[in-house]
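Researcher: Go.
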Amino acid sequence: MVLRTLTRHRHHLRPAFTLLEVLIVVAILVILASAASIALFRYLEEAKEGRAQNDMRAIEQALKTYYLKHGEWPPEGEQGLALIAPYLEQGTQGLISPWGTRYYWQLVRMTDEVDGNYKERPVVFCPQHNINKPPLQWPLR
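Model: Structure:
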């Protein structure tokens, strides 16, 4: 009778995972998730840099529009950028980088390659959140 009870219970037992197997599966999932998150953060950083370059291109065009309309460049720094905000599609929001920093600009004297004369050209800079990286600039050098 004892043998019949034991054999009956054996048929009702379902196979289960051991603790070691569950831990191995969890470890594999953690490794896959970390690899995916690294790729995602790299993609997001590249997207921010792309948006910053587009913003700087728009700021440069707004500076040139201001120059054509007023006959002089706006003052360098935040005051000058506030004056060009009406020429930006995004208004004052277009003056803030994806990292939450403010763009800045300065006039740079460049030599024209054709005639050798000096020309003033606005260069827009974007400080990034990472202080180890140099600021992005437009136009690219």
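Model: The CA atoms of residues 15 and 21 lie 13 Å apart.
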